[in-house]
Amino acid sequence: MNRILGKIEGEEGGPLIIFVGGLHGNEIAGVKAISNVFETLRHQNVPVKGKIVGISGNLSALRQYSRYVDFDLNRCWDPAFISSLKSGNSGWQNAVESQEALSLMTALEKESQGDYRKRIFVDLHTTSSDNGNFIIIPEDEADNHVVKVLKLPIVVDLDKYLQGTLLKFMHDLGFLSFAFEGGLIGSDHALNLHTAGIWELLKACEAVTSEHVNGFSSYDKITADFSKNLPHLVTVKYRHWVEDGNFFKMKPGYHNFQEIRKGEILAHDRSGDIKATCDGLIFMPLYQDFGNDGFFIVDIIDRT
Ligand SMILES: [Zn+2]
Fold it and tell me: What region holds the Succinylglutamate desuccinylase/Aspartoacylase catalytic domain (predicted)?
């Protein structure tokens, strides 16, 4: 697999839109979806305005079908850490993900050059729990029309709990930057949602026109069933942090945005039961062995 999954530079005056897939190596739906879209763009000679780039995230972890090798490539984008890597002074210099971060950074810098009407960065992920279709975005961009075309729950304030995400790093470089979570890891649903969602985003950014892509996108059909019962906008109010080696185990059966009550037993670890600290909706319950975020509790923001 190559770092650059696809790149099309079209007519001037359009946006720059960068898609990253597989920042976590066991989440291959994004990589496949990006490749699908580029294949169609090329074979059908779809006219493009601006520049569309597809980039693969953690190549080493993708080869092993593992979330990461030495550390999480979506928690290391702290500007001080990245500059220490660039200058060769980090204590983590020889870690697999340090080399991945440097290579990814080089690709992102190279592809970001030039003047564009808009700059958009989309990070494609999948989750280990059901109903994992949502958008993660810094709050100041939650109303952006490009994000709203996906008609998925929008989660704000996660950046206050997750340090060093690539989407925050790109946000701070001036991109409209968000994570697009497609659903359960390894599911056909996630691949289909990501593929159709990429087409919707390309239309919303005016990189391609509806008349050229309507035949390829079945986004409304895919989302019709599940999106009506999901919240529109939520804010994160709690995160359960998992220490390594703590034997954290989520109780089975929880899915994203399921209502929970304060005091409800959600999981357990070596110290015993772990109870909900407040009422709310459970978010990103951890059903895989890797990761330090056990679960989050979110609250609906009502802006009607
Ligand atoms: Zn991920």
Answer: 15-178
